[in-house]
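Entry 14. Ran structure prediction on the chain below.
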Amino acid sequence: MKDGLSRSTLTTLGAGLCLALPPLVSAAPVVEDLSQGSGNFYQRAEVREESSGSLVLFNQVQENQDEIKRLRGQIEELRYQLEQQNKMAQERYLQLEKRIESNSGSAGGTAGQGDSQQEGNQAGASASSEPGTSNDARSAYQAAFSKVQAREFPAAISAFEAFVADYPDSGLTANGHYWLGELYSAQTELDKASAAFERVIQDFPQSSKMPDALYKLGLLRARQGKPDESRALLERVGEEFPDSSAAGLASDFLNRSAE
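Output, structure tokens:
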């Protein structure tokens, strides 16, 4: 009897304890496997990292483009200022050259406008008396110079270009190159004018046109914004040809440009 009660009591107490106490072993936690599948953690992290890097790169590119636009604007502004300065310098030198040649012409000078008038009066005589010049070369030179006198400048350029090409070693070839320099200068083709005057200086140093070519090239260098080269050429006229009319014009130009 006692044994039966004891077993019954123990059974009842054990069931009560089981109901009252929390379970000692809980269910196993659910762990998500992030290493599998197309949208796992590592891929999402890489996508976020790539998106952040692309944004930084885009911002850098945008900043570089803005900087390039700003620099281009500054370059255009500086270019415009330089062009304006060169234009003002050219106008100043042209006005100075005209004043000098005007004074020289009234005083009997022979370079510039005075030179053109004198050669127009003496073209036939100088062409016929120039040694080492064939009759055909003299005729071609006189025909070309007649275009200058008629103020047919494009035709004169073509005629003198043909003359120096057909007669590269005649006694009048240096004169032909000199007048090409004058004509191109009048047409504001300064590079071609410079090349023509340089041809006289380099290939025909004994020519009577040498001092005038130095003087005119010096003026061109001033118009081109090269004052140091201009001064060197103009000073050379006075040093090498002190008795020439071009030397007086060069000295006058240097003195007035320094004012």
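Residues 37 and 43 are 10 Å apart (CA to CA). Will compare against last week's run tomorrow.
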